[in-house]
Write a structure and sequence with these properties.
Layout: H1 6-21, H2 24-40, H3 47-73, H4 79-105, H5 107-113, H6 128-143, H7 153-161, H8 174-177, H9 189-222, H10 229-260, H11 278-281, H12 287-302, H13 305-314, H14 319-322, H15 324-341, H16 345-366, H17 375-392, H18 398-410, H19 417-421, H20 428-449, H21 458-475
Length: 488
C-alpha cells in the first residue's frame, strides 16, 4: 500500500474518524490493528518475520533488564557472571535479527559471487531494514541502562510496527516515541491541518518533482552513449534532486500522517543541500539512520578496548598516525551502512565513497585547508561531491559509472543540446515544471535552513493546502511509481 496510492488515501479516510471517535485508552490498540493491517497489504507472510523480531527483542529486553536490576539491588552478586549473561542475550538479539537481514539481503550476492548455478531470488520483507535497527536500538538501550523495557508486548509491538514510519523510517528511539501512543489525543484542528499540509508537501515532492525527473534520468542512464557529457552531468545533478524529493517526500507524508494522530516522529531531513561540508550533510540527510550507526556502532568501535590500546600506542606518534583509529572506525561504519543498503556492490561503493569524503574533510579541518573559502562555494562543492556519491546508487554497475564519467570528461558537447533536452518522454513542458518544483523546494529548504520558515498559522496552512492541491492535481505524475528507498 504505497503512500501515493488511492488505496492508502481511502485507508486514511476510514481510520482518521474512527481514531478520534474512540476513547483515549483504546486509541493505541486501534493504531496497532491499523499498523498490522497496513503491513499485511504488502505480503501477509512477512508478518512472521515482524513477529520474530518483535517477540525476540521483547523477551530479551526483559531478560537483560532483570539482570540489570539484580546487579543494582545486590552489590555482592557475581558481576562477571551477570555481565556475561547480559552480553549473551544482547548477542543473541543481534544474531537473530541481523541474521534475518543477512538471509534476505546478502544470500543473492553470495550466490552470484561464488557462481552458484542457482541464484536465490528471495523477496525482502517490507521495512525489515528499518524495524530491525529500531528493535536493536531498543535492546541496546536496555543493555546500557538508558531505558526500561515495556512489559506489555502489545504496546511494544505498536512501537515496532507503527505504520507511518514503518516502511522507510524514520528510525525512532523508544524513549522519544513510545510514551506518545498512550497520551491523550483529542482532535486538534490546528495540528490536524498542519499534518494534512505536511502530507501534501510530501505528495508535491514525490509526484510533481521526483516522478517527473525519473523519466529523464532513466532515459539518459539507459542510453548514455546517445547523450553528450553535459547532459549526463545534468543527469547526475537531477538524480540528487529526484532522490531527495522522493525520500524526503515520503518522510513528509509519514510525519504528516503521524501529526494528524497527534504523535510526533523525528525529522529525517533538514535542508541537506545547503550544507557547507560533507560532514554537515550527513547530519542533515537520513538523520535517524546515520545517528543510529553513530550511537550504536561508531562509538562502540572507537571506544572499544582494542581501539583504546591502539590510540594509547599512537598517542605520542605523528598527528597522522593519531587519527588512524578514527579513520578506521569511520570506514568500518560506512562499509556496514553499505551492507545495510543491500548486496549490490554500488551500494557498498557509494557508502565507502561517503566515508572517504568524511576522512578527507577531517584532514582539511585538521590542517585548516580552504579556511578562507567562500561559504557559498563550500555549499556548491559539497553538493557536487555528494551528487556524485548519490549517483553511484543509480548506476547498474561500476563499469557503467566509469563509462558515463568518461563521456562527461571527453565529450562534454557532442551533439544538439536542445534536441537532447527535448525528449519524447521529457519535453520542455516537463522541464518548466521540474525547474519550478526544484526552485520551490530549494526556497522552502533555504528558509528552513535560516530558521525563517513558519507554518504555524492556521490560515497560512489553509492557503498552502489549496495551492499544493492545485499543483499536485495539475502537474503531478500519477501512477503506481514506488519510492526509491523502499528497496532498501
Amino acid at each position: 500500500m504505497l503512500f501515493t496510492s488511492l488505496t492508502f488515501i481511502i485507508f486514511l479516510f476510514i481510520i482518521f474518524p474512527i481514531y478520534f471517535a474512540l476513547p483515549n485508552k483504546s486509541k493505541w490498540i486501534f493504531l496497532l490493528v491499523c499498523s498490522y493491517i497496513y503491513y499485511s497489504f504488502s505480503n501477509p507472510v512477512f508478518l512472521i518475520f515482524l513477529l520474530i523480531s518483535t517477540i525476540s527483542t521483547y523477551v530479551i529486553g526483559i531478560k537483560i533488564n532483570k539482570l540489570n536490576e539484580l546487579e543494582e539491588k545486590n552489590s555482592s552478586c557475581n558481576t562477571k557472571k551477570i555481565n556475561f549473561k547480559k552480553k549473551f542475550y544482547l548477542i543473541l538479539a543481534l544474531l537473530l535479527n541481523l541474521g534475518l537481514i543477512f538471509c534476505f539481503k546478502q544470500t543473492k550476492f553470495i550466490s552470484s559471487s561464488l557462481n552458484f548455478s542457482m541464484i536465490l531470488n528471495i523477496a525482502v520483507p517490507l521495512g525489515i531494514s528499518y524495524y530491525t535497527l529500531q528493535v536493536l536500538g531498543y535492546t541496546i538501550d536496555i543493555y546500557r541502562k538508558i531505558i526500561k523495557p515495556e512489559n506489555n508486548i502489545a504496546k511494544y509491538a505498536l512501537f515496532v510496527s507503527y505504520f507511518p514510519q514503518f516502511v522507510m523510517g524514520p528510525i525512532s528511539r523508544f524513549n522519544e516515541l513510545h510514551h506518545q501512543f498512550f497520551e491523550k489525543h483529542n482532535f486538534n484542528k490546528e495540528q490536524f491541518i498542519y499534518g494534512i499540509r505536511r502530507m501534501l508537501w510530501g505528495f508535491f515532492k514525490k509526484l510533481v518533482i521526483a516522478d517527473r525527473i525519473d523519466a529523464f534520468v532513466n532515459i539518459t542512464c539507459s542510453n548514455f552513449n546517445d547523450f553528450s557529457g553535459l547532459i549526463l552531468m545534468l543527469t547526475i545533478i537531477l538524480y540528487s534532486f529526484q532522490l531527495y524529493a522522493d525520500f524526503s517526500g515520503y518522510m513528509d507524508i509519514a510525519i504528516g500522517v503521524s501529526n494528524c494522530f497527534g504523535i510526533n516522529i523525528q525529522e529525517n531531513f533538514k535542508s541537506p543541500f545547503f550544507s557547507k561540508s560533507v560532514q554537515e550533510f550527513w547530519t542533515r540527510w537520513h538523520i535517524t539512520l546515520y545517528s543510529w550507526f553513530r550511537d550504536y556502532v561508531f562509538y562502540s568501535i572507537l571506544y572499544s578496548k582494542y581501539f583504546k590500546k591502539i590510540k594509547k600506542f599512537l598517542k605520542n606518534r605523528s598527528d597522522l598516525l593519531s587519527m588512524f583509529p578514527m579513520i578506521i572506525s569511520i570506514l568500518i561504519v560506512w562499509f556496514l551502512v553499505g551492507l545495510w543498503h543491500g548486496s549490490q556492490l554500488n551500494y557498498i561503493a557509494t557508502c565507502l565513497y561517503d566515508g572517504i569524503c568524511i576522512v578527507i574533510y577531517l584532514f582539511i579541518c585538521k590542517y585548516n585547508l580552504f579556511k578562507n573559502l567562500n561559504s557559498y562555494l563550500k555549499t556548491i562543492f559539497t553538493f557536487i561531491f555528494i551528487s556524485f556519491g548519490i549517483f553511484i546508487l543509480k548506476v547498474t554497475s561500476l563499469t557503467e559509472l566509469i563509462n558515463i564519467l568518461h563521456k562527461i570528461v571527453t565529450s562534454p558537447i557532442s551533439g544538439n543540446i536542445m534536441a537532447e533536452l527535448n525528449l519524447p518522454v521529457f519535453s520542455f513542458y516537463d522541464w518548466s515544471i521540474t525547474i519550478f518544483g526544484i526552485i520551490v523546494l530549494l526556497l522552502v529548504d533555504f528558509l528552513k535552513y535560516k530558521n525563517k520558515f513558519n507554518m504555524t498559522n492556521l490560515k497560512i496552512n489553509y492557503v498552502a493546502i489549496y495551492v499544493l492541491l492545485f499543483f499536485i492535481i495539475t502537474c503531478g505524475k500519477f501512477g503506481e511509481t514506488t519510492f526509491i528507498y523502499i528497496k532498501f
